[in-house]
Structure formats: C-alpha cells, structure tokens
Amino acid sequence: MQTPPGGHGGTNPGALERVTFYHWIVFILASLGWTFDCMDQRIFALAREPAIAELLPADIAPEAETADEQKSRQEIRFALVRSWGGWATGILMIGWATGGIIFGMMSDRWGRVKTMVVTLVVYAGFTGLSGISRTPMEFLIYRFLVGLGVGGMFASATTLLAESVPGRFRAIALGSLQALSAGGNIIGSLLSMYIQPGQSEFLFGLSGWRILFFVGFLPVILGIPMLLLLREPGRWKEAKRKAREAGGHSSRHVGSIPDLFRHPVWRRNTLVGVCLGLAGMAGLWGIGFFSPELITNALRAQGEPQSVIDVVRGRATALQDVGSFLGMVVFTIVATAVGRRPAFFFAFLMCLVTTIFVFNRLQTSTDAYWMLPLMGFAQLSVFGGYSIYFPEIFPTRLRGTGVGFCYNTVRYLAAAFPPMLMYLNAMLVTQGVEEPFRKAATYLSVVFALGLVALIWAPETKGQPLPED
Questions:
Q1: What is the DSSP string of 391-460?
Q2: 348-379: pLDDT as tens digits
Q3: d(Cα 361, Cα 318) in Å, to the nearest integer?
Q4: CA 466 to chain centre
Q5: Predicted confidence (pLDDT) per residue in 87-98, tens digit
C-alpha cells in the first residue's frame, strides 16, 4: 500500500490495546443503530407495492366493461404500481445519498456520536410518518426524508467504531457490524409475515403496510443510551484540536469534500471507493431488492392468491437475509485472513453469476426458499467489505466525509437503476418479449463488472494502520 501523505507505516496506535467493556458498548450500540436502519429498509421493500396500490386513485386506469377490458385495466394499474414503486425506491436512494454526504461531513465537524443520534431520529421518525401517507407523492416525500437519516447512519456508525476499537479488532468489528445488520432485514421480513403489508384492515381499520411503518418508528428510543454511554473518539478530538490550532492557515480541512480530491492518494482512493460502492449499491437496490416483485411474478403465474404470496415473500426474503448475514461473515473472514482486494474480487464475481441465475430460474416458492439466500450471500457480502475498507482508505480528518461520499454519493447514480429496471421491463413488454422483468434484471446485472474493474487501482489495506496526514 502506498504510504499516505504525512502518514506512517509504523505500529498502529492501539494495536496492542486490549478490548474493554466500553469497546463492546460502542460495537453494540453502533451495530444496533445500523441494524434497525436496515430493518426499516426491509419494511419499505416489502410494503412498497401494497402501499402504492392503496394510495393510487381508484380511477387511475380506464373504465372497463368487458372481461378483456377489465383484465387490461388491471394490467395497466399493476404496471403503474410497479412504476411508482421504482420511483419511490429511486427517491429513497437520492435522499440516502444526500444524507450520507451531509451527515458524513457533519460527523467530521460535530462528532460521530451526535451525528449518529440525529440520523437515528431522522430515519425512524420519517419511517413512522410514512404510515400516515395519503397520496403517492406524500409517500415519496417521506421516503426521501427517511433516506437522509439512512445515509448518515452508516458513515457515523462505522467511523465511530473504526476509531474507538483497537486496531487488531477493527476489521472484525466493522465486518460484524455490517453482518449483524442482516438481522434488521430478517426482523423486517418476519414482521411482514405477521403484519402482512397487503392486508387491507389489519388493526384499527388500518392496512398492514401502515402498521409496519409505525413499528419502524420504535428504534428512536435507542438514541437515549447512545447519548448517555458513548463518547467521541480520541482520534477525532485530536484532529479537531489540530484544525483549531492551525486556524485558517492550514490547507488540510476537517470534513472537506474538495480535500478528498486535492491529493492524488485520497483522490485515487475516493474514485476506487465510488466505483466499488456503485457496483454493489446499484446491483442490490436496482435488482436484488426487487426479489419480492420477482416472487410475485412467479407465483401469480401459478395462480397463487395474494395471502400465499405475502407469506412466501416474507419467508423467502428472511432467508435471503440469512444468506446476506453469512455472506458478510465470510467476506470478513476472507478479508482478514487473505486481504481486502481478493475478498472483493470473489464477491463481485458471485454477485454477477448468482443474480443472473436467480432472476432467470426462480419459478416456485421452493425455488425462492433456496435461491434467494444464494443471491443474498453474494450481493450483501460486498457491503461487509464497505464497512471494513472505506474507513481504512481515508485520514481521520476526512474519514466520515470519505466514507459517506463513497457509500452514499453513488446512490445518486444508483437511484436511476430502479426506474431503469421498470423502464426496460415496460419496453420489453411492448416488444412482446417473454419474461420481460427477468430479462431487464439480467441486462442490468452487468453493473457488477464495474466493481471487478475498480479493483485494478484499489490499494490493499490488510495489516496497515489507519492513515493520517
């Protein structure tokens, strides 16, 4: 690895430091913040379609008189629901990107702990408010605001953890934080089995999807122990002290996006991080997280009722998340034992192969129960890499900014993929192509190749201290 400007290749501070009770507290609270963040993401993925279906006006499609016209009307409405769902996902990702940039810089300026609490309140609060949406546009606005908090949580949680724990524990802690986040997805999937999002009157006359979003508000109480128990890392305090002493005479600013591009090392690392992030983010949110729609397509073709489809979707996505957990655990083991670059190489290769396989072969509920875990294993394994790798390629004064930029800025680009998937689907429908949704997902899967190409310039950080300048 190239030595960063002003950096050192000596002993990593804290490398011989023992793991204390406080380190475990930081790990647990940071992991819970990100875990419940992911729970809210899963709730959205499962509630997106029934929410839009209910919020769209009843007269959105032409009136029907004959049976054929009625069928055509249903197809038009179903396509509109899918289209709005794609836009809702894209809007969420734009908010995610915006929040990641803003709160990434704020974590370098305000502090890791304060920023983490603010992002928790934002994502949980607006998830709850999503349940009172009255129109599709109102739903999209809430999703954008949820995205602000979702994007900020990752950067603040990972930088806090990376700077708080001993160096020898860092990769395991960061990889485990991301792996445990799969538990949030699993919780969201299991909740959807008992609070079925498609049920019109689940509780108090409210639809299931509304109740699911109200449940997503509950993690806000986690902010109390965060404020009471966590403290800002010494590394961050030292970086802030140096910045204050330098005043306006220093060219090295805290939390500065332009500084990510001024020096060739940080510029290269930023561009590598953006490419790695885009490949995984676009593949997951533009393809992988439409697995509920894939299941709906397959089971409707078999004549299964919506109640059965809801149960299969809940179970299958929970199993997908179990696969995700295992994928991130395996990535952490490989990255720790062999290196970050080899781990990313095999992960992106698996993403490409399994995504194409699943979207072309899944036909039955049994297929969903074993295929989705394979795809989850591959697609989420790279996210375990982001939590380990991104904090390791930036100096302390830019760490939150760099992580937020690489993990979240790419969502502006990745946000185009859900609408693009639906556009390709609609285009293939008009061309009379069989299985258009599956074909569209197959074409978009080429994005995973971008991650493989970016590895050519990626520095290896295994065994290296956190960089400083």
A1: GGGS-HHHHHHHHHIIIIIHHHHHTTHHHHHHHHHHHHHHTT-SSHHHHHHHHHGGGHHHHHHHTTTPPP
A2: 999 999 999 999 999 999 999 999 999 999 99
A3: 19
A4: 24
A5: 888 888 888 888
Q: What share of the chain is helix, strand, coil (3-state, %, to 5)?
A: 80, 0, 20
The gap between the terminal CA atoms of the chain, to the nearest Å, is 15
Task: Give the contacts of 321 (CB within 8 A, at least 6 positions apart).
Answer: 42, 182, 183, 185, 186, 189, 376
Alpha-carbon span 131 to 123, nearest angstrom: 13
H or E segment to which residue 282 belongs: helix 264-286
Single-letter amino acid, residue 87: W
Computed on alpha carbons and rounded to an integer, the radius of gyration of the chain in Å comes to 22
Adjacent-strand bridge partners of 203: 206
pLDDT tier at 64 (50, 70, 90 boundaries)? very low
Buried b (16+ CB within 10 A) or exposed e, 361-395: ebeebeebeebbbbbbbbbbbbbbbbbbbbbbbbb
d(CA 125, CA 421): 29
Tokens (6 digits) for 119 = 């992002």
Q: Map residue 203 onto helix, strand or coil.
A: strand
Which residue has 């996006």 as its token pair? Answer: 257
Of the spans 58-62, 201-205, 274-278, which averages the highest pLDDT? 274-278
Question: What average pLDDT is seen over the chain?
Answer: 85
Task: List pLDDT tens digits, range 189-230.
Answer: 888 888 888 787 777 888 989 999 999 999 999 999 999 999
Distance of CA 373 to the CA centre of its chain: 17
Residue 309 to residues 34, 78, 151: CA-CA distances in angstroms?
A: 29, 15, 31
Alpha-carbon 421 to chain mean position: 18
Q: 113 Cβ partners below 8 Å, 6+ apart? A: 156, 160, 226, 227, 230, 231, 232
Distance between alpha carbon 7 and the CA centroid of its chain, in Å?
31
- The answer for residues whose C-beta is within 8 angstroms of residue 115's C-beta and 6 or more apart is 103, 106, 107, 152, 155, 156, 400
Number of C-beta neighbours around residue 244 at 10 A: 10
| Pairwise CA distance, residues 277 & 279, whole Å | 6
Q: Reduced to 3 states, what is the DSSP secondary structure of residue 469?
A: coil
The answer to whether residues 263 and 395 touch, using CB atoms and an 8 Å cutoff, is: no
Amino acid identity of 353?
Answer: V
pLDDT-derived band of residue 162, with 50, 70 and 90 as boundaries? confident
- Contact, 87 vs 140, CB < 8 A? yes
Neighbours of 160 (CB within 10 A): 29
| Positive or negative: CA dihedral 377, 381, 382, 387 | positive
- Cβ atoms of 178 and 386 closer than 8 Å: yes
